Every structure is written in C-alpha cells, then in structure tokens.
Amino acid sequence: MNIPPLPFEKPVVELEAKLDELRRQSGESKIDLSSEISKLERRLQESRREIYQHLTPWQRVQIARHTCRPFALDYVEACFSDFVELHGDRLFGDDESMPCGLATIGPYRVVLLANQKGRDLKENLRRNFGSAHPEGYRKALRLMRLAAKFGLPVVALIDIPGAYPGIGAEERHIAESIAVNLREMAVLPTPIVAVVIGEGGSGGALGIGVADRVLILENAYYSVISPEACSAILWRDRKHAAEAAEALRLTAADLKEFGLVDEIIPEPEGGAHRNPALTAEWVKTAILRALDDLIPIPIEKLLDARYEKYRAHGVFEQVSSTEVTTASEGG
Q1: CA 61 to chain centre
Q2: In this predicted structure, what is the pLDDT of residue 4?
Q3: Topology of domain 61-311, per CATH?
Q4: What is the pTM of this model?
Q5: Environment class of 136 (CB within 10 Å of its CB; exposed 0-12, middle 13-18, buried 19+)
C-alpha cells in the first residue's frame, strides 16, 4: 500500500528515495555499493528513531488522523468474528457512522459499538465523516441495554472527531442523547471496555466511552476539544493548533499519567498504518486481557469500582476568596 507521508516524515521519505536509487544503480551498473547502502540504511534507521521517539502532541494527532490508519471495521474484521450488525435506534433511523452489533472475540460473545470513518469521499458522506448523529448514540444505548439483558460485555471502538454539530442533530437533541448515554453507562450492569483507536473527540467519544477499562493506542488522542477548535477559541486562528495540542495534554502518555486511561496499547514504529495486522493483534490481546479481568467481578463490585473510577476524575480543592487574593499578590 502506498502510504502518503506526513509533513514531519519528509526527511525519512527523502532518505528512503535515496536508498532505493542507490540500490537501483547498484543493480543496473553491477558496481558494489554495499558499503554506501549500509551507511544509508543506518542513517535511515537513526532518522526514523529520532523522529518517532520524540513525536510532539500535534504530530501524534496527525498520525491519529492518517487516512491509511486502520478504522474501526478493520479492527472488527481482524480481531472479532461472527459480527452481526444491528441497525436503527427504533426512534428515528440508522446512523452509519456508528456501526454496532454482536460479535465474538476469543471465547467471549460481546456487544460491539464503533465509530467508523470513510476512506474516500463517497464513503465519508455515507459515514458522515465519522461524526455521529443522535440516532447513533440511541442505537448504541439500545444495544447496551440488550447486552445488560443477556449478560454480554460491551466493547467500544472509539474513533470520532466529535459528534455532528449540524442543525438536524441539534433538532434531534444530540446533547441529550449523549447525556443519557453517560448516565446509563455509569450504571449499566455489565462489563464495558473502550478502546480509543484514533481520534477521541469531546462528548462524541465519551458518549460510548464510559467504561470499566479505557484503553488507548499509542498515537491516538482523547480530548475535550480538537486542537483546531481550541486554537480558534483561544487565538482566534486555527494556525495555532500545534500549541493547542501541547496545552491540551491529549496524548496517550499524558492521559495515562492523569489516570484517565488504564492502558496504552503500543503501535509499530511510525503508527498503526505501518503494520495494521500487528496492531490488531495487540489490540485484541489488550481487549481480551481486560475482559478476563472484568468478567469474573460481581456486578455490584463492578459498578462500585466504575463509580469510584469516574468520581476520582477532575479532583479539585475549594479555597476561600482570601486565599486566592493572597496567592495572586504573591503572599
């Protein structure tokens, strides 16, 4: 597959092109250029290591959005079997940006929720560019209630830039549909595992992300707002997206440090799109490990632990106005 490079990968691409040209010349001219080829290979390896071991938050966001990155249904095909998609919210319609259904992973039959983007314009229009409508969240809730009824765990694959902000979505109460999901997932009497595989944008992601275990791929991100939107608000210009990404602390490592995710799933060097099969294997292993841990726990203890998990997020201290004034004056 021809993978288009990201802007920061250009030095690697240039070295790869030089290496290919040197190998071609060696083959055509029958001249031994093995020494030069070895030097260039070492230089290429060092360049890759330098770039990918020191990625900035904005560069990780770019990797998370890469058009060749595996999408949710790619993981469904690679990690799950016997997937049966169930359609419709029984209130308005079906949302193809939120494919949901029944599937098997390892020994477990699960209810699967997912966010799906498109590879081309036609599919993106069909999938609404991965941004879910209210009926998508209501469909997900319908299936989660089905999971609770039959004692099936829930697995959610999150990859969404944000819930759809259009007039139709507002008319059909997008905020209410997400809020209801948050409330219901908090007390859903069955294990829930969420995996952020790409973008985790705002309430759009959280609408299927309240889980007992939250996993995230190494180059995915999870944030209350996109870097571009944050930049537009703070600087009134989207060109400061890189600075906004830094300030938002949205990378997997930051989220793990804050306790907002439970496990980081590694990716191949350069991102999941460089080796989708290996990434899928690691994702499957992580999901099975989480299910192995959660399924034996009695429901009462599971719900108590879920409550404590989210109750601990966003801990704050209350101070008096006098203390604030003293601190601002340097006292």
Answers
A1: 10
A2: 87
A3: 2-enoyl-CoA Hydratase; Chain A, domain 1 (3.90.226)
A4: 0.89
A5: buried
